[in-house]
């Protein structure tokens, strides 16, 4: 980077002088387009806020998430308890704040597990075709044709309830759509001239897949996983709702909602707070994913 | 943009119409039918020989009459039912029932002693879990033909293995809902199938609705949806007030409450505390309640080196805020009780003696210190994901944490919880149990007595075995009490056992179950007792 | 051609078998003992052993699986342990309930979702696009069980404009013959308009809530398919030729996305058939999803395997359709 040219100029220069500059430019222009959409920004803002809340939970929350008091149970929202208290007299706001950790933890880990698996399976199947494709896609079909919640439920029941197993189970339901998408992308680019050129140069299949095909699939995979994040959060909440997600007294939103279910008519705030939290978070991921798609997916242009 | 606006308006309009069309008159239940909502998940059979859960018992109790019944006002007393009287021989080994002359099946045929004998034989021969109601009193598959016989059309003669106290045997083996229910032998024999070379005594046939002499008969059963009972016009007793009883599967307390408030059902069987509290304030709705003979309790696994220490187990009894839980979370659902014999059963300690514990962290700390674990320990506790179990468990865990005991909770489906319990695969388990009959013997013979503690004995029907707990002394005392025919002495013996178990036993009993049912005030005389609900007495 | 069809059939069979195997062995991993579900918690070991034997659980796993697949081929699903009925009979009751609900929902999804998606695409970036987006994304992001509870409180308890949980008020139970198992249809066949009306009141809320989710999905995809079409040169050419906007959109663009849309709608429908577990729980709807969940939690693999097989068949059928369309549509995959 030259000292006389500002960073901004470097980013917006009409001719690029290095591949690095080119990719930074792509990112920058992407960011500009992203910024142009207020809803996308809103989504991003909510997620950022959530991350901050999760990190600073002890500073934000008024007390711990398991401070019980049977004398102060089911209190409606007030100055002392912003969102009221639950059936064991615990402050719902505090639980909600700590619960953001669980939710983000699940979402992140599932993404980190499911995306690479899906990408690898999908690109491998698409690139090799033939029996490899057949076998991998059959496995994919098997997992896809299972109702997501049921598959997760089965695995959690088999592995034992708890946060870690819930994440594994949800990840098991999250990779197949990604694999399908990656395969479809691979199918459309594997015959491309530049792939043929790389192959003639003697590159190994592994190298072609990881260096030339995966990066091409990455944008749509990122879009897909962001959009699926809402589904992941809802599945995890569904598990929590059925009592098989994070175990009490951990403040998982789905489990909180489940407790609130029995107090719906008498103490509406129990179910409302986590319900809205789940809704807002998954909405934020959807807004962001939607915006990202506009930016990253070349065909959406 | 006008087209756009028009389209948007159309959209809004069409959705309004969609919902608006749903508007209509407020519903009411039919006058000649009693409509109940309940969770029927567990219901899998109506065959009295096979029923092992509360839904089936409750319904079949209104379909099949048994020889004698519990007095609904005081279940420790026995009243005549299909048998108008009974007599015991001098040696206490022969029991003779005399049947009423007017017992008629819905088809019109008169029920005789042969029907009673056939029904009780199949009860034992089928060998389902229920058979234990008879086999634990010495009735056997091999000997049953001699042990239960007909004498003419109206007399049933029972040969007892030992001279048990007559109240005990009547209560445990005959009044207890299912064992002496009278099924139609002719229909049964006609519909019996051979499975694996053995007769099924019409089990498959009676599963969907037994032919009995009771007040109602089952006319429809869609699993997890609805059960419909129609009045049996040939019933020998008081004619049931309502012609039909409809039991509808509604597994959600909130949904049941809404249905009840709207008048779409007459009776809500499943309401949870908060909904009941709200219903109590509604003048159109009454709450009927009774103390059941069941418990919510903690089980400690005796194979665990720490939990096998009686002082550690006793410490847990001081970690529960009985009063606060009882008036909040467990209102309408349970009353504090630490003795293993439920209040209302024969031989039970009274209310005060039966609940000497209270929340006392210092005492609990002293007890674990005495046991050698002053800094506490970490254990896993398994529990049901349903109902109030998670709330109780979190309460216990929170108090335990205050004295250094870390309890890690693990929720699961009921079937899984039971499987784990029966296999001794747990450290601490939060679970429930219902006594079979209102006599101290019922709980003590399963929860205190453990005939064989070896793993390979697999006595999973004994919670004491599941907890790997055994006391030769208690085994002996319980057996002696079971044979004691003097009422006063038998009571004293049970008191002694209860005292010992409260401080040394493998369970920490916390709450005796309460059953509270919300009933619309248009329904009169809806009466419940710890061992059943009489649908026929209710009227609208 | 014949070989291609045979290969396809082979792969479908392999998928189904794999699905069953996965379910079967997952079932065996469950720490739930179906024997305990049957005999009850208080039963003794002799009873346990008897039922254990009756269920054939003393045979080797592979034998059990083989016997199960053999029975399946004879269309014999056996008995559901947790209901006490034959699985086939249970399914004949729960499946129509779910089909009715899913069909209601998909109709809402299509009738509202497709026009909404079209509008959003045509007026891209306008207020309606943003509204459609937020409405759609909200549907995507809502926990349906929560919406269901809230809906019950507002529309049933407070306003009384819809029916409560269940498919009918009790007074209407058993009033129509189960010709199809779909109450809305059966009641019309029998001319019982009151029953129809009652069934309608009961299905409106859960159907609409489920339909909202599908609507979100369908409208989003309609929008993106449509945007892609609107960018195509022929559309621009057609517009240049002076054809009216509406005509271009409906005759040309919509015609081209119809095939893709059918696939999407079919998938949304399949998802509704299998995915309404929580809604069915909240609305006490005696349907397929709840049946499957209860079966799973009771460790009842007869019921679960039969359900999974059905879901698999539905899914694979739709997949096949999607694949064929995909091949026809996109020359690059050839």
Explain the overall architecture.
The complex is a heterotrimer of chains A (301), B (540) and C (334). Chain A has helices spanning 7-12, 19-36, 38-55, 57-60, 92-128, 130-144, 148-159, 163-189, 193-200, 205-241, 253-261, 269-296. Chain A has 301 residues and is an all-alpha fold. Chain A has one domain (24-63, 78-296): MetI-like fold (Orthogonal Bundle). In chain A, helix 5 (92-128) packs parallel to helix 8 (163-189). With 540 residues, chain B is an alpha+beta fold. Chain B has helices spanning 2-20, 54-60, 113-126, 132-135, 144-147, 166-175, 185-190, 203-206, 253-262, 273-280, 310-317, 322-327, 361-370, 389-402, 414-422, 440-448, 463-466, 472-483, 487-504; strands at 33-38, 68-71, 74-80, 83-88, 94-99, 148-151, 155-159, 194-195, 198-199, 216-222, 226-231, 244-249, 267-268, 285-300, 334-336, 378-384, 406-412, 428-434, 507-520, 527-529, 532-534. Chain C folds into two domains: 2-73, no CATH class; 96-286, Orthogonal Bundle (MetI-like fold). Chain C is built from 14 helices and no strands. In chain C, helix 11 runs antiparallel to helix 14. Chains in contact: A-B, A-C, B-C.
User: Which range best describes the helical content of chain C: under 10%, 10-25%, 25-40%, 40-55%, 55-70% or over 70%?
Assistant: over 70%
Taking the sheet with the most strands of chain C, its summary is: none
Low-confidence stretches of chain A: none
Compute the number of strand runs of chain C: 0
Note the main sheet of chain A.
none
Question: What are the key terms here?
Answer:
heterotrimer, B: 540 residues, alpha+beta, D-Maltodextrin-Binding Protein, domain 2, Dipeptide-binding Protein, domain 1, Dipeptide-binding Protein, domain 3, 3 domains, 11-stranded mixed sheet, 4-stranded antiparallel sheet, 19 helices, 21 strands, 33% helix, globular, C: 334 residues, mainly alpha, MetI-like fold, 2 domains, 0% strand
Layout of SSEs?
The complex is a heterotrimer of chains A (301), B (540) and C (334).
Chain A: H1 7-12, H2 19-36, H3 38-55, H4 57-60, H5 92-128, H6 130-144, H7 148-159, H8 163-189, H9 193-200, H10 205-241, H11 253-261, H12 269-296
Chain B: H1 2-20, E1 33-38, H2 54-60, E2 68-71, E3 74-80, E4 83-88, E5 94-99, H3 113-126, H4 132-135, H5 144-147, E6 148-151, E7 155-159, H6 166-175, H7 185-190, E8 194-195, E9 198-199, H8 203-206, E10 216-222, E11 226-231, E12 244-249, H9 253-262, E13 267-268, H10 273-280, E14 285-300, H11 310-317, H12 322-327, E15 334-336, H13 361-370, E16 378-384, H14 389-402, E17 406-412, H15 414-422, E18 428-434, H16 440-448, H17 463-466, H18 472-483, H19 487-504, E19 507-520, E20 527-529, E21 532-534
Parallel strand pairs in B: 1-12, 1-13, 16-17, 16-18
Antiparallel strand pairs in B: 2-3, 4-5, 5-7, 6-7, 8-9, 10-11, 11-12, 13-19, 14-18, 14-19, 15-19, 20-21
Helix pairs in contact in B: 11-13, 16-18, 16-19, 18-19
Chain C: H1 2-29, H2 34-39, H3 45-54, H4 61-73, H5 87-122, H6 127-141, H7 144-158, H8 183-189, H9 193-231, H10 233-240, H11 245-275, H12 277-282, H13 288-297, H14 301-329
């Amino acid at each position: 980077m030259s000292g006389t040219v500002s960073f901004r100029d470097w980013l917006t220069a009409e001719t690029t002088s290095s591949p690095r500059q080119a990719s930074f430019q792509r990112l920058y222009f992407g960011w500009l387009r992203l910024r142009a959409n207020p809803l996308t920004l809103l989504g991003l803002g909510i997620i950022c806020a959530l991350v901050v809340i999760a990190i600073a939970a002890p500073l934000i929350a008024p007390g711990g998430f398991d401070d019980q008091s049977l004398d102060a149970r089911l209190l409606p929202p007030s100055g002392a308890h912003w969102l009221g208290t639950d059936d064991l007299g615990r402050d719902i706001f505090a639980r909600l704040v700590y619960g953001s950790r669980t939710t983000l933890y699940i979402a992140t880990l599932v993404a980190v597990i499911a995306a690479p698996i899906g990408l690898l399976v999908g690109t491998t199947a698409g690139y090799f075709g033939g029996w490899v494709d057949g076998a991998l896609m059959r496995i994919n079909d098997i997992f896809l044709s299972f109702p997501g919640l049921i598959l997760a439920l089965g695995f959690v029941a088999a592995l034992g309830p708890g946060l870690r197993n819930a994440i594994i189970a949800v990840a098991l339901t999250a990779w197949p759509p990604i694999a399908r998408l990656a395969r479809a992308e691979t199918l459309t680019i594997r015959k491309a001239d530049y792939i043929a050129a790389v192959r003639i140069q003697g590159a190994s299949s592994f190298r072609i897949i990881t260096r030339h095909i995966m990066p091409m699939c990455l944008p749509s995979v990122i879009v897909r996983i962001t959009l699926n994040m809402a589904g992941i959060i809802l599945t995890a909440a569904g598990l929590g709702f059925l009592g098989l997600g994070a175990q009490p007294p951990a403040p998982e939103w789905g489990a909180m909602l489940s407790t609130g279910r029995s107090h719906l008519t008498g103490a509406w705030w129990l179910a409302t707070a986590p319900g809205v939290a789940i809704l807002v978070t998954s909405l934020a991921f959807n807004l962001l994913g939607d915006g990202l798609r506009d930016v990253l997916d070349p065909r959406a242009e | 943009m006008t087209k756009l606006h028009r389209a948007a308006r159309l959209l809004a309009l069409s959705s309004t119409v969609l919902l608006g069309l749903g508007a209509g008159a407020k519903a009411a239940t039919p006058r000649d039918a009693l409509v109940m909502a309940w969770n029927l998940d567990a219901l899998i059979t109506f065959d009295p020989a096979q029923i092992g859960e509360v839904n089936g018992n409750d319904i079949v109790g209104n379909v099949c009459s048994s020889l004698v019944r519990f007095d609904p006002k005081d279940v420790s007393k026995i009243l005549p039912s299909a048998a108008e009287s009974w007599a015991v021989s001098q040696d206490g080994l022969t029991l003779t029932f005399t049947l009423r002359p007017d017992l008629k099946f819905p088809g019109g045929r008169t029920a005789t002693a042969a029907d009673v004998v056939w029904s009780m034989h199949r009860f034992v021969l089928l060998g389902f879990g229920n058979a234990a109601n008879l086999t634990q009193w010495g009735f056997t598959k091999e000997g049953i033909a001699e042990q239960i016989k007909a004498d003419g059309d109206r007399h049933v003669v029972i040969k007892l293995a030992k001279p048990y106290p007559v109240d005990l045997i009547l209560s445990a083996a005959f009044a207890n809902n299912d064992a002496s229910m009278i099924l139609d032998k002719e229909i049964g024999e006609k519909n019996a199938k051979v499975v694996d070379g053995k007769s099924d005594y019409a089990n498959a046939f009676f599963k969907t609705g037994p032919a009995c002499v009771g007040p109602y008969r089952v006319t429809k059963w869609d699993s997890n949806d609805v059960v419909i009972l129609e009045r049996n016009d040939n019933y020998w007793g008081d004619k049931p007030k309502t012609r039909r009883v409809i039991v509808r599967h509604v597994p959600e307390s909130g949904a049941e409450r809404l249905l009840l408030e709207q008048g779409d059902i007459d009776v809500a069987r499943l309401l949870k505390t908060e909904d009941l509290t709200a219903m109590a304030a509604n003048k159109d709705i009454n709450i009927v309640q009774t103390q059941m003979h069941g418990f919510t309790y903690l089980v400690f696994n005796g194979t665990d080196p720490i939990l096998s220490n009686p002082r550690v187990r006793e410490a847990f009894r001081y970690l529960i805020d009985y009063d606060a839980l009882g008036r909040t979370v467990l209102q309408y659902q349970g009353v504090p009780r630490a003795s293993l014999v439920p209040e209302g059963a024969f031989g039970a300690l009274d209310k005060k003696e039966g609940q000497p514990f209270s929340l006392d962290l210092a005492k609990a700390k002293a007890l674990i210190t005495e046991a050698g674990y002053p800094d506490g320990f970490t254990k896993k506790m398994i529990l049901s994901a349903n109902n109030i179990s998670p709330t109780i468990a979190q309460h216990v865990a929170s108090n335990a944490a205050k004295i250094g005991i870390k309890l890690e909770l693990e929720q699961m489906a009921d079937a899984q919880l039971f499987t784990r319990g029966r296999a001794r695969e747990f450290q601490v388990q939060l679970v429930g149990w219902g006594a079979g009959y209102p006599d101290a013997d019922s709980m003590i013979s399963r929860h205190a007595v453990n005939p064989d503690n070896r793993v390979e004995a697999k006595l999973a029907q004994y919670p004491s075995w599941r907890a790997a707990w055994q006391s030769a002394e208690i085994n002996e005392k319980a057996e002696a009490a079971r044979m004691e025919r003097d009422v006063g002495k038998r009571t004293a013996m049970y008191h002694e056992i209860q005292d010992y178990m409260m401080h040394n036993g493998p369970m920490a009993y916390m709450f005796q179950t309460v059953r509270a049912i919300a009933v619309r005030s248009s329904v009169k005389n809806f009466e419940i007792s710890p061992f059943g609900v009489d649908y026929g007495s209710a009227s609208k | 051609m014949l070989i291609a069809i045979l290969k396809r059939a082979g792969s479908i069979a392999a998928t189904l078998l794999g699905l069953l195997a996965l379910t079967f062995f997952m079932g065996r991993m469950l720490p739930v003992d179906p024997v305990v579900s049957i005999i009850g918690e208080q039963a003794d070991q002799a009873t346990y052993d008897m039922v254990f034997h009756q269920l054939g659980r003393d045979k080797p796993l592979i034998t059990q699986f083989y016997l199960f697949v053999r029975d399946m081929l004879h269309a014999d699903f056996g008995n559901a342990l947790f209901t006490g009925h034959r699985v086939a009979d249970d399914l004949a009751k729960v499946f129509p309930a779910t089909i009715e609900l899913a069909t209601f929902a998909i109709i809402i999804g299509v009738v509202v979702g497709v026009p909404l998606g079209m509008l959003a695409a045509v007026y891209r970036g306008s207020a309606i696009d943003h509204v459609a987006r937020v409405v759609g994304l909200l549907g995507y992001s809502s926990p349906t069980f929560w919406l269901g509870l809230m809906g019950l409180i507002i529309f049933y308890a407070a306003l009384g404009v819809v029916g409560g949980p269940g498919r009918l008020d009790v007074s209407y139970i058993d009033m129509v013959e189960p010709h199809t198992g779909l109450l809305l249809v059966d009641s019309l066949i029998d001319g019982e308009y009151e029953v129809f009306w009652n069934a309608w009141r009961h299905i409106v809320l859960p159907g609409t809530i489920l339909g909202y989710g599908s609507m979100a999905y369908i409208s989003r995809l309609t929008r993106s398919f449509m945007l892609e079409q609107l960018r195509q040169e022929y559309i621009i050419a057609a517009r240049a030729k002076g054809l009216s906007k509406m005509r271009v959109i409906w005759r040309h663009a919509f015609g081209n996305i119809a095939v893709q849309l059918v696939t999407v709608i079919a998938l949304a429908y399949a998802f509704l058939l299998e995915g309404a577990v929580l809604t069915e729980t909240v609305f006490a709807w005696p349907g397929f999803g709840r049946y499957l969940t209860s079966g799973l939690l009771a460790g009842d693999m007869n019921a679960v395997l039969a359900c999974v097989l059905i879901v698999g068949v539905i899914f694979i059928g739709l997949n096949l359709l999607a694949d064929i369309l995909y091949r026809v549509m996109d020359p690059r995959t050839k």
